[in-house]
Amino acid sequence: MAKYFDVHPDDPQRRVIGNVAEMIRSGALVAYPTDSCYALGCKLGNREGLARIRSIRDLDDRHHFTLVCQNFAQLGQFVHIDNDVFRALKAATPGRYTFILPATKEVPRQLQHPKKKTVGVRIPDHTATQALLADLGEPLVSSTLLLPGEEEPMTQGWEIKDRLDHVLDAVLDSGDCGTAPTTVVDFSGGAPEIVRRGAGDTSRFE
């Protein structure tokens, strides 16, 4: 059974956030809110967690996982960014965007695109997510919580707990966070390529 944690959306209880972070450090797979849908997340290097996400979402090996980072200092450890790309990303973060960039050697091979050696990264604008990342001290390996055969992700923590109780270790709930996924922009070739139009404004990348 998944443990259920309910936190205030604007002032999440530090003790509860700490409990969830400790579970993640110990190998847990959690569902957590972001500024763009709920996500599934686990600790960097948690092979079992990745396998469980793939199983829940019925994903193949080509799926781009996302490293959800607290800030640019953290993001810069995992992707290569030139000055022009840095300025573009800086202007759009934190926010509802995922950026695909060349991965550094700090990114485990199983997280990288098998041919392109890229990885998705994002910095969310969400109070509870930021509190969790701050306590964790490292990125969350994540994927949008969209179940196979469904067009929209679940928006309520209690619903996630009810439906996925048997396959998750914890659910962090801070209220509805919408159904629109992030906008995905691929910078791996230098110029921005919009891969998916989602919650973030795409005009700045066109």
From TrEMBL:
Keyword Nucleotidyltransferase (UniProt): yes
SUPFAM superfamilies (alphabetical): YrdC/RibB (SSF55821)
UniProt cross-references to PROSITE patterns, sorted A to Z: YRDC
A single MF term (Gene Ontology): L-threonylcarbamoyladenylate synthase
Enzyme class at the top of the EC tree: transferase
Record-annotated YrdC-like domain positions: 14-200
Pfam families to which the protein is assigned, alphabetical: Sua5_yciO_yrdC (PF01300)
EC number: 2.7.7.87
Domain of life: Bacteria
UniProt entry keywords in alphabetical sequence: Nucleotidyltransferase, Transferase
PANTHER family reported for this sequence: DHBP SYNTHASE RIBB-LIKE ALPHA/BETA DOMAIN-CONTAINING PROTEIN, THREONYLCARBAMOYL-AMP SYNTHASE
Protein name: L-threonylcarbamoyladenylate synthase
Record lineage: Bacteria, Bacillati, Actinomycetota, Actinomycetes, Kitasatosporales
